[in-house]
Structure formats: structure tokens, C-alpha cells
Amino acid sequence: MAVASTSDRSLETRTLRKVAIRALPFLMALYFVNYLDRTNLGIAKADISQHLQLTASMFGLASGIFFIGYVLVEVPSNLALERFGARRWLARIAVSWGIVAVAIGFAPNAPTLLALRFLLGVAEAGLFPGVIFYLTRWFPAAYRARIVAMFMMASPIAAAVGTPLAAWMIQAGEGTFGLAGWQFMMIGVGLPAIILGVICWFYLTDRPAGAHWLQPDERQWLIDVLADEERDVAGSFDFPLRRALTSPRIWLLAVVYFGVAYGLYALAFFLPSIISDFKKTFDVHLSIVQVGLISAVPYTLAAIAMYLWSRHADRQNEHVWHVAIPMGLGGLAIPVALYLHSPLLVMIPVCVAAMGVFSAIPSFWALPAQFLTGAAAAGGIGLINSIGNLGGFAAPYATGALNQFTGSDKAGMWAVGIFMVISAVVVVVLRATPDRDTSRH
Description:
The protein is mainly alpha-helical. The chain is built from 20 helices and no strands.
């Protein structure tokens, strides 16, 4: 049943508004803390590197090793969410990652930091694809890109608001309870995850059938629409779980997401240090709080662009080019920033790159749901996210290693731009490739 054909548009609007108000603010808060906990190492780079005696490549390894644990547990975690329900499993994820995030604030040396960052990835695995899968259980296909965009606005908001907040906590927390500033910040942003995890257990509803906060007619409308869509997908594609995990289309989508994640986390971990280097490059002196505030500008613009671009994608019912265009433009913008000669001019292509990578993500996650349902959707989305997020490991480690090897940040940023452009090309090629693996046998 197409959403547009329902006889009662007011019922549709009323139902989806209630679901959005109920679910999205809480899920955004969860992802806000999640994004901050996995990227706060970037704003603390100078302090933590000095305190624990980290080289540039060691810092890159500490940033990226998170994703090794993340990748190893991602698919099983998402399948567990399908089996045990989102309420229980997302609560487990949040509490466990919060405990590890707080423990990082007490890391006495580099090996302990590396071990805890790995465990943080294990603990967090499944949150993002779990929420993406969860949203497919509550919103019809015609709304998913914009709903994912609204949920994902938490990440640029976390970067825009959380980065200067984390910088302030480092500065203000120095010496508090005998802690270094970076330790105070790590503990301070880890504790909210534990609190949200406990709330999650009592707050979320696994499926529309259990949504007693909806009126009976609203609940039944949502159940019927989603059931009809699932039958349509199941009738068009034969994707049991095993085939979903071995499908060339799924693996090509993972390649696309590798480029997305490469750009996303290169910006997250190295944008603050790029801005800090304005002192050396342009003789501009900035405090750590000023660095955080300037870092917030690209992410603020990215949040606005992401929402507007996703609405356009849903209205046009087209998602491939809504991934390719921003990724291509963002990838081309990254190297341009390396050859400009003022802080203001450098920030313009950086903003374009941030807007590009964030704008591509909601439309990207609308693609797997077009041919996956049930356990195949849970496993396939988990696989795409886990393999794609190897870019989250590769980006900080390769960028740090290239910076250390060449003595310049140019090579690392060129790599970021190249991977983003490759991602744009692959998603277009994927659209043009016949769906041999999707035919029924």
C-alpha cells in the first residue's frame, strides 16, 4: 500500500508525527553522546598525546582501533537486536559503551588506551545500524531518508555543540579532582551514555503493535502500511540472510560507505588539529575553545544541508545521485583547502566537504531498505556499516601516518578526497549494473 494512496491523510500525518516525537529526540540524544564519545579523542589530541606520549601514528591508531572492535561485532550485534528487541539491546549497548568511555579517562598509558578504544568499538557496535533498522520498523519508505537525516543531525550537532563543549571541559576541568583536563572531559561525556541506556530500557517500544501510546486506528494504519511494504519487497526480491551477506550489491554498498566513513572520520579526528595549525601556517593564535568553536562551523552548515538534501531526495524519490553528487563535490573540495592562503579561504572548502559527506549519508541508508527486509535487513545493514566503517579505522591511521611520513597534512587530505570521489563513482556504477544477484531462483 503506497503511503500517498491512503484515504485518510490526516491519520497518516497524525500517526507519523506522534512516532517522530516519541522516538527521534531520544534516539538523537543517544547518537549525540555516541558520536561525541567516539570522536572526542580529536579535540583532546594535543593534551592526551603529551600525557601518554603518543606519536602522530600512535594517535591515529588509537583513533582508528575503535573500528576494528566495531567491525568484528557489528553484524552479530544487529542480529541480536532483531532477536531480543531494540529496547533491550540498545540499552545494553549504551550502558556498556558508557562504562568503557568513562574508563578511558583513567587510562595510564598508551597500551591501556589502545585496549580501551578497541573495547569501546566492541561495546558500541550495532548502535547506528540498529537504529537505522529500527526506523524501518516505524516509518514507511517514502519518509525514511528525511527521518534518517533528522536522526543523523545529532552527529553534526554533536560536532558543532559537543566539540566546543568538550574543549571547554578540558580547559575548565584541569586539576578538578586531581584529573587532567582531558581525563575530566572523557569521564564527563561518558556518564550520560549510562544514564540514557537505563532510560532506553523503559522508554522505547520495539514494534508498532506494542505502541499503546498510539490510538488504535493510528496503530493499525501503521501496522498495515509497513506490512504491505514488506510484502512488496519480499515479492520483488528473494534475499534470505545468507544471500544478503554474500550479495555483490551489499558488498559494493559497503565500498561506497567506506568512502563516506573515510571522509567523515578524517574530518572528525583531524579538523581540530588542522585549525590548530593555523598558528604555524598563518600565524593565527587560537585557544582550545576557539578551535572548538571554529570546528563547529562546518558541522552547523552540514546539519542544515543534510536535512534539506534528504527532503529533496524523498520528494524526488531518488537516492543514488543524492549520494553521488555531494560525495563528489566534497571529495573535490578537500584538496583545494590545502592550497589556499588564509584561514577564511581554507574553511570554505572544508565546509563544502563536511556538507557533502553528511548530506550523502541519509540517502545512502535509503538504498539497502529497497531490497532487504527482516533478518536479511538487520544482517545486511550491519554488514554494510561494519565493512564501510573500516574507513573509520583507515582514515585516522592513514592520515596520521602520511602526515608523520611526509611532514605535511597534504598527502593525508588528498587521500580523503580520492576515497570520497571513488565512493561517488561506485554508487553510480552500482545503479547502472544489472541486478543479477537480486533475481529469484
